[in-house]
């Protein structure tokens, strides 16, 4: 599941001389590389490490969207005019909302607000945060697949991979893009049986 991000980085070759390649590169890092281990850390009870990685993922997503927005602006093209762009915008909004929920839970955990104010229902908030995270990653994955199907995405794969212009290779790369989401969904919706025991351990990080 960690193959997709390096593949995208190799295909688009981001550097200081070009702005737009940072868009797919940063988004691939955010949702294809960082999020899955962040979710796994949460399942293991390493909440602070989870928070740090998710903050990194959110930052990458923001910078990636900014790179695309600035590039479109420099060319005088309309913003959010394609299904890919609109889905990506929805994913960004969902990411920011879910990150806000995660930050709220972190504050509640740090200051013991859940115990002091049971009416806040921290358990329900945690469940909502997890499900929202899965939905957010699903939307982001849809945006990534649409990006791979765009002219730029197909052209980048054609130049980077042998047989990159074939339907089989294109579909294989799109499947690789879905694997991180599938892993995240599995970790959240079907956690390990011993996850509950692990989460009871003191957070040492």
Automatic annotation (TrEMBL):
It is found in: Membrane. This is ascorbate ferrireductase (transmembrane). One of its GO terms (molecular function) is transmembrane ascorbate ferrireductase activity. It comes from Amblyomma aureolatum. It holds the Pfam family Cytochrom_B561. It is a multi-pass membrane protein. It comes from the Eukaryota. Its cofactor is heme b. It is an enzyme of class 7 (translocase). Its main location: membrane. Its EC number is 7.2.1.3. Residues 1-185 form the Cytochrome b561 domain. Keywords: Electron transport, Heme, Iron, Membrane, Metal-binding, Transmembrane, Transmembrane helix, Transport. One of its GO terms (cellular component) is membrane. InterPro entries: CYB561D1/2, Cyt_b561/ferric_Rdtase_TM. The chain crosses the membrane at residues 20-42, 49-70, 90-108, 129-148, 168-190.
């Amino acid at each position: 599941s960690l193959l997709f991000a390096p593949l995208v980085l190799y295909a688009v070759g981001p550097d200081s001389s070009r702005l737009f390649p940072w868009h797919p590169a940063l988004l691939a890092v955010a949702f294809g590389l960082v999020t899955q281990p962040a979710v796994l850390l949460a399942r293991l009870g390493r909440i602070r490490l989870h928070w740090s990685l998710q903050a990194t993922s959110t930052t990458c997503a923001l910078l990636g969207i900014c790179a695309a927005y600035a590039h479109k602006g420099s060319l005088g093209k309309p913003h959010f005019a394609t299904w890919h762009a609109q889905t990506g915008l929805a994913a960004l909004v969902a990411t920011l909302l879910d990150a806000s929920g995660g930050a709220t839970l972190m504050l509640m955990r740090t200051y013991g607000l859940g115990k002091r104010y049971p009416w806040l229902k921290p358990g329900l908030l945690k469940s909502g945060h997890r499900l929202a995270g899965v939905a957010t990653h699903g939307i982001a994955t849809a945006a990534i697949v649409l990006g791979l199907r765009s002219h730029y995405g197909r052209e980048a794969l054609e130049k980077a991979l042998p047989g990159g212009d074939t339907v089989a290779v294109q579909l294989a790369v799109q499947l690789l893009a879905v694997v991180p989401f599938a892993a995240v969904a599995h970790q959240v919706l079907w956690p390990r049986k011993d996850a509950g025991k692990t989460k009871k351990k003191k957070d040492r990080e």
